[in-house]
Design a protein that fits this description.
about 625 residues; alpha+beta; seven-stranded mixed sheet; 17 helices; about 20% helix
Length: about 625
């Protein structure tokens, strides 16, 4: 014995879909669970609601399995009997089951149909519509278009209207302005004063900021790094997606080489972000392959690919026009600087020789230690960037006295740096009356230091004689000859053939050697001078004591080159740390009158970056 279960579903066009299934059982169940022979997807139906059993007399008994009632021919009952020959109807929730026996079929047929009045708890009903307000809201299409129109009105039409209202207003009133919704971030400190004057940069709507807008304010402190055509030729041509981006940007009035490619705004309320190294290396990495006539060496990263330093040094103290000749020379060639001096650093920095002993005797008065050190002669300028020129009277004369004679309680000295006046003073000295004594100028430059010795005069070294011109000539030759006060420290010119036309070569005390990069001693103040300068082993005044790039790389590792396993103190050093893009007016190597770097300038940024070193 078996049942035939016939499920009927409606299509969208009103047609019916009939699915029949024969269940070879004498007893079947009706319920919400899918294991039931008659599955009713309705929350009003219990998982196993009722059982239908085929009796021996051909009738079907229906009994509740869950205790819940059901409808039998319109009556709510818990059990009942149905004769398939006469037919009957069972109601479970929103479903109607018709029980009948068809003429050509021996088994009873159960026809399951979902009636029009479906219960609100039907399982196949959209639960979002049952438990939310979805049924009360507009459809998805209408909502989408409505939201789009709202966005266009609030974020496009309103800002454009606001912009047009304040187009010619220099300073906007305080309050909310709709076009500020387009702002990607706060202005930097440099442009903070323009917060309420958007039109100063954004002149036209939907037009990118142009270089002309920038130059309105920066015409006096900014210019092209190089001729525009050479800059564009020096840049590596973009490829792939970068080329596509460049083509699109050009179509939207964003040509290559604009100011904002490097100087990005709306990045936050702090200092403007420093230019990333890649903007420099786009040109300078492989520069000689694109600008074949350039003399500039390739540079990609300070820590790995950067040329040796080329300091500006004096190569000739007297050029064709009588002025010193300076030239940039690579440190790889171990250059010598013709500075006009005969000064051995090693002698003055020794801890055991006579100079050290002199320093100890003068220590109480001049603040010397156990021996002389760099700071005894080299004094920082007020900015801390470089050092003042060494002054003879301040740093040398305490040991190298130029005393000539005592006049009353005053000691008269030869005038340093003026060789013609030195000769005149010597001639005048021997013409003086009453007759004076000849002076021993050969040992003057090595006179023992000390307060008593500083007061002694050259006249103390010989007996009194009458004036003779030959005495003055001898004294002049003694001063400018080997062993004399001038000769032992300076390069002397002239004096050939017994003449007295002696002179002194110009002295070069270079305050700035690196003319193409920025360097400050201030952030290196905690380092010993000997860390970078090999002065203690220098026995020639011509030695150029500028450290090479290898010394700098002990700490400066380029962009992103710091390693956790480095034994040094790594400082990430991008191009912008040492180089300026708009280098004009002597920048960045000409000293400023102000004591400290201007806030926000490249010098201040350099100091701040270096001070971050652990």
């Amino acid at each position: 014995m078996s049942f035939i279960v016939r499920q009927i579903a409606l299509k969208s066009d009103g047609g019916e879909i009939v699915r029949s299934n024969t269940v070879a059982e004498t007893s079947i169940t009706v319920g919400r669970n899918s294991e039931n022979a008659v599955h009713l997807a309705d929350l009003a139906v219990d998982p196993v609601h009722a059982r239908l059993t085929l009796e021996s007399d051909g009738r079907i008994s229906v009994t509740s399995e869950s205790g819940l009632k059901f409808e039998l021919d319109g009556r709510s009952v818990s059990s009942g009997m149905i004769d398939p020959a006469k037919g009957g109807e069972l109601g479970f929730g929103g479903h109607l089951i018709t029980v009948a026996r068809e003429a050509d079929v021996a088994e009873p047929v159960l026809t399951v149909r979902r009636v029009d009045a479906v219960s609100d708890s039907a399982e196949d009903k959209d639960l979002g519509a049952v438990y939310t307000l979805k049924g009360l809201l507009p459809g998805k299409r209408i909502s989408a278009w409505g939201f789009l129109l709202l966005v266009l009105a609030a974020c496009l039409a309103w800002p454009i209207y606001t912009w047009s209202q304040y187009k010619d207003v220099k300073e906007r009133p305080a309050g909310f302005h709709a076009d500020t919704m387009w702002t990607s971030g706060k202005l930097s400190l440099a442009h903070k004063s323009l917060e309420n004057d958007c039109q100063s940069c954004h002149v036209e709507p939907f037009v990118a900021v142009t270089d002309e807008s920038c130059m309105t304010c920066h015409k006096d402190d900014a210019h092209d790094h190089a001729p525009k055509d050479r800059i564009l030729n020096a840049r590596a041509a973009p490829t792939g997606f970068a080329k596509f981006q460049r083509d699109v940007a050009t179509q939207f009035n964003r040509p290559a080489g604009r100011c904002v490619e490097c100087h990005t705004e709306h990045e936050g309320a702090g200092a403007m972000q420093p230019t990333q190294q890649r903007f420099c290396t786009e040109c300078h990495d492989g520069l000689d392959t694109r600008l074949t006539d350039t003399k500039i060496a390739n540079a990609a990263d300070f820590g790995t690919d950067h040329p040796q330093f080329n300091p500006m040094i004096m190569v000739n103290p007297a050029g064709p026009d009588g002025k010193p000749v300076f030239r940039r020379v690579s440190l790889d060639s171990n250059p010598k600087e013709i500075n006009g001096l005969k000064f051995p650093h090693d002698v003055h920095l020794s801890q055991t020789n006579g100079v050290a002993q002199m320093g100890r005797r003068l220590g109480a008065r001049y603040g010397f230690g156990a021996s002389l050190d760099c700071a005894n002669c080299h004094k920082e300028d007020p900015s801390g960037v470089w050092f003042e020129p060494v002054d003879m009277e301040e740093s040398c004369q305490m040991c190298h006295s130029l005393s000539l004679e005592r006049v009353g309680n005053t000691v008269r000295t030869l005038r340093h740096g003026e060789p013609q006046l030195v000769k005149a003073d010597l001639i005048a000295y021997y013409r003086s009356t009453p007759p004076t004594r000849p002076i021993n100028l050969g040992g003057m430059s090595r006179r023992r230091p000390g307060e008593a010795n500083a007061q002694r005069t050259a006249a103390d070294y010989a007996r009194a004689v009458r004036f003779r011109p030959s005495r003055a000539d001898e004294a002049i030759r003694a001063v400018f000859s080997e062993g004399g006060a001038c000769y032992d420290c300076h390069a002397v010119t002239g004096g050939q053939g017994g003449s007295l036309n002696f002179g002194i070569q110009p002295v070069a005390q270079t305050s700035r050697y690196l003319h193409k990069g920025w360097f400050s001693h201030e952030p290196h103040a905690k380092e010993e001078c000997s860390t970078c300068h090999a002065a203690k082993s220098s026995d020639q005044a011509t030695d150029l004591l500028i450290p090479g790039i290898k010394v700098c790389r002990d700490c400066h590792v380029g962009e992103g080159g710091a390693s956790l396993f480095s034994i040094t103190k790594p400082v990430e050093s991008t191009c912008a740390m040492c180089h300026e893009y708009h280098a004009d007016g002597g920048e960045p190597w000409v000293a400023r009158e102000k004591d400290k770097p201007k806030k926000g300038s490249s010098r201040a940024k350099t100091v701040a970056l270096l001070e971050r070193r652990p």
